[in-house]
Amino acid sequence: MHDSDERYPPPMCHPGTREIVIVRIKDWYGFQTRPDKRIMWVHAPAGYGKTAIAGTVSKLLEEEEGLYFSPLGATFHFWRTSPERNSPARFIITIAYQLAMSIPELTPHIENAVKGNPMILRKTLEIQLMKLIVEPFKALGELDDMPNRLVIVDGLDECINSDQEYTVDRQHVEDQERVQIRILDLIHNLQSHRLPLSFLILSRPEAWIKQHMQSASFVGIVEAVDLYALGDHVKDTETYIRAELSRIAARIQDDGTSDQGDEEWPGENVVQTFVRRTNGHMLYASTVIRHIDDPYGDPRKFLKNILDDYAYNNLDLAHSLPFSSLIALYMHIMQSSPKSNRPLMIQVLEDVWAPSPSISTCGAPPVRYRKL
């Protein structure tokens, strides 16, 4: 759920950013009227703020005034490293629970389904979908006049585990293509019953997801939005950078650590250089901000070192691989850590890589990390 304690504080769009796509989503949803295409798929590579967009849309719908109903039906945020959220096992029961909260008239019918067969919580997802969502809606009778609710499914590509919800070991992981396609088919099944629900799905544009979305059964009900091609990403990152650097500069002033002549930090030249480095990539910008926003260090020095680093001025590196600039950034951050901390840091990296042998050779971190 978008407001669960596990996700606190929930990722949100920085004020003044991603406005075009948020308006696009709200216009498509239409609140009381049902969109012609009941599924919107927002896709983009990693780091373009899909989860923040999902969180912002959820918050905006919750705060929408002047409506006699709650427009946000339910949310589910898949997350690769969470045993409870990297599997489809809790998907239907979580959606059903939230629908019962947002549509009170559904509650007794869902409760009766569980009381009548407590083992429903252990049944297949397809049976759960019928018993906990479809049949309770049908029990309400005529649905044409019921307001449309939005269900947000974020991080579909992060759903990697099998139905064995209590195990996350590698040997139990289903083929991720099949498990993600299964989620899409469950959503399609719901849509075939003409329930007053629309779905906003956010994910990376994985080939199998894209192919399924463009299949004959989906193409007529899906509105696809390429986040990478929508909006001014450079402008968004500049808005974020200016606000965050101003905040850090104010903290420096308040702490009394600002040297004479630094009152104008960061200065327009630093801001523009930082913006160019990001190339519209919000993940890069936010990673730099987190690194330099150290109460025990000097943000001015940290940022200067990053912007002056040779790796960022090497055009061959910048264009050699996707996310090369991020790789170089992470290398810089790790190399700038105190030498006394490096053995522990390398041990942590080895522990992180160990459960995922496909990421690297033999489950160990890349050689370049072990050379830090």
From TrEMBL:
Residues 26-204 form the Nephrocystin 3-like N-terminal domain. InterPro entries: NPHP3-like_N, P-loop_NTPase. Keywords: Repeat. The keyword Repeat applies. It comes from the Eukaryota. The keyword Transferase does not apply. Pfam families: NPHP3_N. This is Nephrocystin 3-like N-terminal domain-containing protein. It comes from Candolleomyces eurysporus.
